[in-house]
Design a protein that fits this description.
Helix content is about 70%, strand content about 0%. It is an all-alpha fold. The protein is globular and about 50 Å long.
């Protein structure tokens, strides 16, 4: 069996990348307003992280970006739905820690299952930000026992995650 492959020149990759950047960074109406809104939201999201010494500052920024939309009504609806999804996922995370923490094989096998469930929820549920809230919280949360958190404090981690997600998501209220 003869397998042939055609390699493209690196200069072609550079020209495709520059064309992509030119197309995506072209000026559009209202771009400066969206940029200013996201920049101010990031600054406002930094305040709870610094004031309350939040344990997971990455979740604060991800929560803010996951509901940032151009349409005001979609942002308000997405904010409420994402808060509900993050709260539900925090409860599921606490239940997960109570049931599967001692069983390493179950913990390892449930990581792709729970992440896949969250990603499926993004595609199935309307609005998709509910599934995104579940996917982000569960995706980050189920890896905490293996990433250096003491086992004795894992019963508080879902509350840290909810506290990190909910205020950051509510930044998008107008």
């Amino acid at each position: 069996m003869l397998v042939t492959a055609t390699l493209t020149a690196p200069s072609l990759w550079i020209s495709q990348f520059s064309e992509f950047l030119r197309r995506e960074l072209a000026p559009t109406p209202g771009r400066w307003q969206a940029t200013l809104r996201i920049t101010l939201a990031c600054i406002v999201c930094t305040i709870p992280v610094m004031a309350f010494h939040l344990k997971e500052p990455l979740l604060v920024m991800i929560g803010m970006f996951m509901v940032a939309k151009e349409d005001v009504s979609a942002t308000l609806l997405g904010t409420v739905v994402a808060i509900l999804g993050a709260t539900l996922a925090s409860g599921l995370l606490l239940l997960y820690f109570l049931c599967a923490l001692d069983l390493t094989w179950l913990r390892v096998l449930s990581i792709p299952v729970l992440i896949g469930l969250g990603l499926m929820m993004i595609r199935v549920v309307n609005p998709s930000v509910f599934g995104l809230g579940i996917a982000v919280v569960l995706g980050f949360g189920i890896t905490f026992p293996d990433s250096g958190y003491p086992v004795e404090t894992l019963n508080r981690v879902p509350f840290y995650v909810a506290w990190a997600c909910c205020p950051s998501i509510s930044i998008n209220f107008r």
